[in-house]
DNA sequence: AACTATACGGAGACACCCTCCGGATCTACA
DNA sequence: TGTAGATCCGGAGGGTGTCTCCGTATAGTT
């Protein structure tokens, strides 16, 4: 890669990060290029579409979330709580970019953002595995599902800013469902089989 | 309302329904107008934005979902199962329009689609109330939250078409969390308080 | 210094959104 | 039935944003 190309690449990612934070992930790409002192053509050469750029920005920040998962693994925290806390951190992070949750979920971006997704999966997967080994989380729960759930709830919360506690309320529903149920207690679990 | 205006209004809704089913809720409004044999200006006069049109289309189909809730209320089904089954019906319906779930969640459309939302809330609210009276669903669960959760999960499922069972898996997590937990069983609920 | 692979820039085609207003069309009333 | 005028129609046009293409410029090499 030529030196000038590398320079432009870096400036674009830098500028994109700012723009995405300020204007959300739908910030105009032409503005990003202009602020980076670069032509729109250059932007598109480095990043064929919006998702590529988003992926590059996001990837720089992922190390932090991965690091958190390692810490939670090392610390003596309750395995199930560790998983849930980590998912909350993922949620908090994605909140800093309006629209990021939507972008990650977007099918179109599936290919482009895969590198980010697999990093998240491997970090979270380890935490989940430990919790499942300890019997603290249902064994049929998958890390991919948890991440998808988390981003879906972030999105719901983002679209309902007038309800501040929404994410936590929804997450708590799902969180309770993750835990293995005690052996059926008469009455309380009536009808449960029909729902499964 | 003048007769020709009414005629155009109806044709637009009709045509929009088809377009939304075929091309998703982001179908080009100009195409809808053209297919309805009407100018784009006419479309915008009747429906100031995409959400108004979506609302009109959606509203025609809501009676069915409301009807279902009445049936579930009348039938002797388990109250909690009835709520969950109804939410599934809502989910199935919204699946017929790619993007509807996103549109309903969208903040911009909040005003425009309110009439649909309140119909859903009142139908679901009655079912939920009965289940909570019967002690079959946690009393702190709100119908607004359940609908938001449902649409969030529909959206997640819609964006991951390669995983057919996703919606059901995610829903089952949340569904389990809705049920009141039996009095703490030693060991299994360790760490629960931290998550609430 | 000359050469070539690589990268740049931005004009322009495209798609969609939404507005505006001159002209066409209904309807009520005589 | 004829007409006045309130109502409605249509689509050109301006705006925004995406993405492509290719003539020009430049870094790196010999």
Report the radius of gyration of chain A as a whole number of Å: 20 Å
> Which chains have the largest interface?
A-B, 49 and 49 residues
Our count of helices of chain A gives 10
Structural class of chain A: mainly alpha
Mean of residue pLDDT of chain A? 90
Quaternary structure of the protein: homodimer
CATH topology of the largest domain in chain A: Tetracycline Repressor, domain 2
Give the CATH level 1 class of the largest domain in chain A: Mainly Alpha
Global outline of chain A: elongated
Question: What features would you highlight for this structure?
Answer:
homodimer, about 200 residues, mainly alpha, Arc Repressor Mutant, subunit A, Tetracycline Repressor, domain 2, 2 domains, disordered C terminus, DNA-binding
What's the short version?
The structure is a homodimer of 196-residue chains. Chain A is elongated, with a radius of gyration of 20 Å.
What does this protein look like?
- Chains A, B: It comes from Actinacidiphila acididurans.
- Chains A, B: Residues 6-65 form the HTH tetR-type domain.
- Chains A, B: Keywords: DNA-binding, Transcription, Transcription regulation.
- Two copies of one chain form a homodimer.
- By secondary structure, chain A is mainly alpha-helical.
- Chain A has two domains: 1-47, Arc Repressor Mutant, subunit A, CATH 1.10.10; 58-180, Tetracycline Repressor, domain 2 (Orthogonal Bundle), CATH 1.10.357.
- The first copy, chain A, has helices at residues 3-23, 29-35, 40-46, 50-74, 79-95, 100-105, 114-133, 143-158, 166-178, 192-195.
- The radius of gyration of chain A is 20 Å and the shape is elongated.
- Mean pLDDT of chain A is 90; it is low at 183-196.
- At the A-B interface, helix 5, helix 8, helix 9 and helix 10 of A face helix 5, helix 8, helix 9 and helix 10 of B.
- The structure holds a DNA duplex (30 and 30 nucleotides).
